């Protein structure tokens, strides 16, 4: 929002307020109670928002592929802090870039079919942005959903995950928060940090970004900072797998706020010692299986296998069991539409393997089929 003002009243539009946004869109809200109070509050917010926060570019530069360089990390972060040996500062590569950007930068330029497909996706999104806006004031249309189902291009993935999850808003309103958490947790030892250390090298060992200390250190900082922010959750297995993928497409700070959105809003109570939220959803999934695949449900109940198999699907958003390129498309849909996508895909997996599962005579056989 750039301008807010009272507009002239009429019988059609009583007590209207006009609001203009940075990307030249104007909105007229009418029939408002306490119009004067509302205009004053928005004006106060605008006065308190420093111009430097947005710079001269689109507000999306806060979360775009170039990283959150316009957001001050903390009031104490500066060149002197680097000399003091602080472990998180804007000079770190992962403070300004995603791991995937750093990984691609080191390799030759890809001119193959995959790269061409990515460029076509980017162009489709650019057309969408030009028609429906970009960032928090973007209109969501049926076309938005089609573009997501087709897979978000890698260059826009972090930006759109932040937008759809609401993490963008929290990050913009808490400048410096992540950096401060990292500083507070350096050198601290706890049960959570011991568990994090044990799982760091098991997160995505096959990906080049986590075969060196840069990726491992970034993952350690994000997980440790979150455990410190939310001691009720601390650290739970599966968080490392999800967070490593968030770090591929976003900076450390962006990955941290996406993890906050996941653990505290999108998947409440999933990542605690008893994974209560995930177990509740296993009960829902069993009910859905009984409703849509009754014959398979009865057989799977005899084998006692549904919850055993599907718990890891839900906790890792299929990232631990699907080929990476397929699973990350599922994460695109998850950030846009929420947990229902995981239910839909889980049912589809059972349906597509139904004949083989019905022929199973024991739990191990069923686990092997779905493990493939």
Automatic annotation (TrEMBL):
Region described as Disordered: spans on this chain: 65-85
Residues forming coiled coils: none
SMART domains on file: TBC
Pfam families per record: RabGAP-TBC
Superkingdom in the source lineage: Eukaryota
PROSITE patterns reported in the protein's UniProt record: TBC_RABGAP
Polar residues biased stretches: 65-82
Span of the signal peptide: none
Residue ranges occupied by any Rab-GAP TBC domain in the UniProt entry: 151-338
Protein name in the entry: TBC1 domain member 9B
